[in-house]
Amino acid sequence: MSSYAEAGVDVEAGERAVALMRERVAATMRPEVVGDLGGFAGLFDASALARYKRPLLATATDGVGTKIDVARRMDIHDTIGIDLVAMVVDDLVVCGAEPLFMTDYIATGQVVPERIAAIVSGIATGCEQAGCALLGGETAEHPGLMAPDEYDVAGAGTAVVEADDLLGPQRVAVGDAVIAMASSGLHSNGYSLARKVFFEQWGIETHVPAFGRSLGEELLEPTRIYTRDCLAIASDVHAFSHVTGGGLAANLARVLPENLHAEIQRSTWDLPPVFEVLLDLGVPRADAELTFNMGIGMLAVVPEPDRVLAALATRDVPAWVCGQVRDRQDDDRSDAQAKGGSGGTVTLVE
Description:
The chain is α+β, with helices and mostly antiparallel strands. The chain has helices at about 10-25, 65-75, 80-90, 115-130, 190-200, 215-220, 225-235, 245-255, 275-280, 285-290, 305-315; strands at about 35, 45, 55-65, 100-110, 135-140, 150-160, 175-180, 205-210, 215, 240, 260-265, 295-300, 320-325, 345-350.
C-alpha cells in the first residue's frame, strides 16, 4: 500500500500554510465579503452593486512569468504576490472599473508552509494597495511534475464600473494629451530577455553600480500598483493603457480608435538605469521598446492634462505629458500592432 504522503503530497503542510496566511488574508477584507477563509467558494455581497444604474463587471487573469525565477534565486518570496496583483488589477482599472476581489492559484512541487505564506502575504499586500479583497485561493502540490522548490502563481480579479463611466477608445478625441506615469522598473514583463542578458554578465548577488544595489534586488523590485491613483482621476480621463508585454506602442494603440494616431516623444523622459543597462549590453532599442515598459507603467489619455497632472502630483505619482493624439493619416506607420489586432496607431519619436 502507498499513502498520499509517500506520493509526495503533505496535507499537513498545506494546513499549516493556510494557518500562517490567515491573518494577512483577513487584512484585505472589504465590508461586502461574506464568511471566512476556508470555504469552498469566496462570497461577495452583490447587493453592494445596487447603487449602480447599470453595473458592468470586468474580469482579468494573469501571472508574473519568469520573474519567479528571480524570487527563487534570491529566496525572497514576499514580493512576487504584489506583482501578481498589479498585473490583474491594473488591467481592470484601465476601463475605469474598481477592483472588488481577487483569487489566487499557487502550484508547487512541495508545499513549504513558510514559503507559501510569504507568497500569499505579498498577494495580500497588493490587494491592500489596490483596495480589493483576497477572496479565496488554491495551493496545489505537484510532486513529480515540479521540483520541490519550483512554483508558479496565477490570479484572477473582478471589478465593476458604471456603464456610463466606461473608459476606452470610444471617448478618445483629437487633441487629447497622453500622460505617462512612471514605472518602478521592469515590472513583470520581458524577464525572459532580461534574465538572458543580465545573467550572461552577472550573478544574482552581483552589486551593479548603475542600480546602486544587487542585480537580484533590482530585478525583484515590485510592480507599481496604479489602481487607486487611476480611480482618483478617472472622471478626467478618456482612456488608460496598462503598459505590459508588447511595450508602449502596442498597448496604447489598443485604446485608440482606428482613425486616430498618437505620437510619443522619447525626449520627455530619461530612461531608468535598468533599461539603459539593457541597451548598453546589446539589446536593440527596437526590441527593448517592443518588450519592456521603458520606464512608463501606465498611460492616461486626457483632454485636460494640467488638471490630471496636479491630481497625480498630490498622490506622489511621477507623471508627465509624453504625447498627443491626432487624426490618423494614410502614411502613418505604427511602431507596433495593437494587441488583439484592432486599434489606432502609435509611433515613438525623438
